[in-house]
Amino acid sequence: MKRRDFVKLSSLGTTAIILDGCKTKDSSEKKQIVYPVAGENIKVISTWNSGIEANKVAFRILENNGLALDAIEKGLNITESDLENTSVGIGGLPDANGEVTLDACIMDHEFNCGSVSYLKNIENPISVARKVMEDTPHVMLSGKGAYDFAIQKKFKHKELLTESSKLKWEEWKQENKNVLPAINHENHDTIAMIALDGKGNLSTGCTTSGWAYKLAGRVGDSPIIGAGVYSDNEVGAACATGLGEAIIKICGSHAIVELMRNGSSPQEACRIAIERIKKSNKDLKDLQVGFIAMNKKGEIGSYSLYSGFNYAYQDVQESKLIDSKYDLEWEE
Ligand code: ASP
Q1: Range of the domain at 268
Q2: Mean pLDDT throughout 33-39?
Q3: What's the number of domains the chain is made of?
Q4: Rounded to whole angstroms, what are the CA distances from 114 to 100, 174, 331?
Q5: Confidence of residue 35 (pLDDT cuts 50, 70, 90)
Q6: Looking at the predicted structure, is the pLDDT value of residue 168 above 80?
Q7: Which residues surround ligand 1 with Cβ inside 6 Å?
């Protein structure tokens, strides 16, 4: 984007930003896009129904003129600290060896980003990811290094394996004889969130314990910038949940932002990304992926490969759960 003009459209009783210099998809002609300033337009979306509670906390920050980045961190902390949630933070289902390992990443409106992967014994990985972003010259810390950094930053060491998650893991070990389960509705659920604040800035983040009973050392899409989340404040943001191995292959979230840059609506961009998931995987059995996206105007969209994916929405008027559009019917 070469030039930005701020123009008051008084006849419409609203303020708009005109972004000049965008090229259309199939020609070099310049297209003029009129974006509303987001003061009234604050909103937050996040994956799955656990997003409802996380959105509430995030939205309170936005309502008080807070930053989208703070909304993302504090909102996601809610799900991370929820003992009942078996796929994020404390209480997450462990890997094949019975250890809970966490992945998370965060990205602000200026391309700053931070991430942690294979992090053990820290309840709020999204906050550690933010510290990596703000207090180090790096983007990603992993494993013991990420843990040591968190301790140095005064995060508390914590046992993350709850009694009920331990029981589930023991049952899995007995029943499945160490065969990895197919990823499905019961054993996956990243919470990924996008927020648009009163200054019109977008941020995004996600946090997960990943694929239940994964091989020790496995890292999914969720700490990978461009796969698990991506944000370009001039265009929009996107994030993902589902089988990380499939999401990484197509750089899912980055792909969606690029599709929006080239003129796709958030909805259409998510649908096209799911098309790519279909093309890049021979076997679609048990391979669920869901994307959510928001553009600079605050328009939202989502798409999943199979039915059953939903996401939580909150703006000044309402908080609701939206069933995602999808491609294939899930059969148990
Ligand atoms: N995307 C996460 C992973 O592959 C899991 C999920 O969203 O269900 O680790």
Answers
A1: 43-328
A2: 56
A3: 2
A4: 21, 38, 37
A5: low
A6: yes
A7: 188-190, 208, 210-211, 220-222, 241-244
One domain for residues 26 and 164: no
pTM across the whole model: 0.88
One domain, residues 56 and 203: yes
What pLDDT is attached to residue 285? 84
Same domain assignment for residues 64 and 28:
no
- Whole-number pLDDT of residue 36: 52
Is 295 part of any domain? yes
Same domain, 28 and 166: no
Of the listed 101, 190, 204, 207, which one is catalytic?
190
Task: Indicate the DSSP class of residue 162.
Answer: -
Check if 14 is active-site. no
CA 179 to chain CA centroid, Å, is 28
Q: How far is the CA of 117 from the centre of ligand 1 (A)?
A: 12
**Residue 246 one-letter amino acid:** A
If one residue of 211, 224, 251 were mutated to test the ligand 1 pocket, choosing by the most ligand atoms within 8 A of its CB, it would be 211
One domain for residues 93 and 238: yes
Residue 31 has pLDDT above 60, yes or no: no
| 20/3 Cα distance (integer angstroms) | 6
147 with 122: CB under 8 angstroms? yes
